[in-house]
Structure formats: C-alpha cells, structure tokens
Amino acid sequence: MSNIQDQIYSLVALQGVEVEIHQVGRLINALNDEVAALDQAVNQREALLSAEKKTLDDLKKAYRELESESKINAERIVKSNAKLRAVKTNKEYQSILKEIDEIRKINSDIEDRMLEHLEKIESAETAVKAKAVEMADFIQSYQEKKEMFAVKEKRERQSVEALDEKKEQISAKADPKILAIWDDVKKKVRGPAVVPAVRSICLGCNMNIPAQLFNELQRFDELRFCPHCHRIIFWKEQV
C-alpha cells in the first residue's frame, strides 16, 4: 500500500484497534480488581472467624485450668478432713479447720469464675456457629462470582487476541516508514496520534491550522502535522 490517503486510513484503523485493546485491557484490570476485592473480603472474614475460634479455645483452656485447680483443692479438702480424725490437740484441730475453710473459700471463688467462663463459652460458641454459617454462604457466593469473572476474563482475553490479530493484519499492509513516524508521534503526544482536521481546525488540540496547510491536506500527497500539537493530521470532508 503506497497511496498516502490509504496509509493514513490504515493508521486511523490501527489507532482504533489500539483504543479497543486498551479498553478491553481496562475491563480485564477491572475484573482482576473485583477478584482481588473478593479475595480480600474472604481473607478478612476468615481472620474474624479464626479470631472468634481462638477466643473460644482460650476460654475453654482457662475453664479446664480452673476445673483442674478446683479438683486439686477438693482433694486437699478430703486429705485435710482425713487429718482431722488423727489430730490429738484442739489447736491442731482448729488449724486444720481454718485451712479447710480457706480452701473452700478459694474453691468457691474458682467455681464462680468457672460459671462465668461457661456463660462466655456458650456465647462464644453461638458466635462461632453463626459466623461459620455466614462464612459458608459467603464462600459459595464468592466461588460463583469468581467463576463468573473467570468466564468474563476469558472472553475479554479472546477479544484481545482477535484485536491483536487484526492489528497485525493492518500493520502488514502499512508502510513501515510511516508506521515508524506514527510510533514516534505516539510517544510525544497524549491521546490519538493521527487526527482529522475539519474547517481548518485540528481535532487533536482544537486549534486553527493555517489555511494553506488545510488546503494541502486535501491533496493527500504526503504526511502533514499540526503546527500546534504535532499530531499527524488529515483532511476530513465536513459532514
């Protein structure tokens, strides 16, 4: 392809394909962000459930320690009662009674604490069960959404492959020198590198171009550039 007009139209087509590829890329990134947000939500919920389970485990452990301490004190009371039958003086008898009374007071306090722990354990078990049910429902929803996002991403990636193929086909017919010029302009400007000029206005920067330059564009005999934004410009018939 050597005709300048055809070459410019090829650049316009390539530019359009690149815009589509960019748009699809943004969709894929958005899908990946959605998946990342889902993963984060799952991790947060798992962390909360894990914390609830740890609280429950700690309460059960503390209860077992209190229970063990209570049993030890109960055994001490049994031994002290046995000692009562063997004492020979009133002083020893009173001393052992005092010891038994102190152990019973300690055990009474331990039993109160055990009851408090049982209430906390019951409350914690209820919370863990509720969160586990919520977690199971959330995981199911999470998996369904991930599968849906995976299908969408696959479809979008197939679109990118088709667009890449289309881009290669157009590029193969274009003049390599003109492609090189276009690539160079793309590096220097933001947005489209090739734009039409209508009514002597460059649609890249919306600035007026000289009348002579606008007239020359209609000849399509060489590439011309906007004197303001330096994009490749071409004449486009007013609709």
How does this model look, in words?
This protein has 239 residues and is mainly alpha-helical. The protein has 2 domains: 25-164, Orthogonal Bundle (Helix Hairpins); 180-235, no CATH class. It is 77% helix and 5% strand. The protein has 4 helices and 4 strands; from the N terminus they run αααββαββ. A 4-stranded mixed β-sheet has the order 2-1-4-3. The longest helix has 84 residues, at 90-173. The chain is rod-shaped, with a radius of gyration of 41 Å. The two termini are 27 Å apart. The mean pLDDT is 94.
Q: Which stretches are poorly predicted, pLDDT < 50 over at least 5 residues?
A: none
Distance between the termini: 27 Å
The proportion of residues in beta strands is 5-15%
Mean model confidence by pLDDT: 94
Q: Give, in order, the helices and strands.
A: HHHEEHEE
Helicity level: over 70%
Shape: rod-shaped
So how many helices? Answer: 4
Roughly how many Å is the radius of gyration?
41 Å
What's the architecture of the largest domain, going by CATH? Orthogonal Bundle
Main sheet, how many strands, which sense, barrel? 4 strands, mixed
Number of domains: 2
Please give the order of strands in the largest beta sheet: 2-1-4-3
Count the beta strands. 4
The CATH class designation of the largest domain is Mainly Alpha
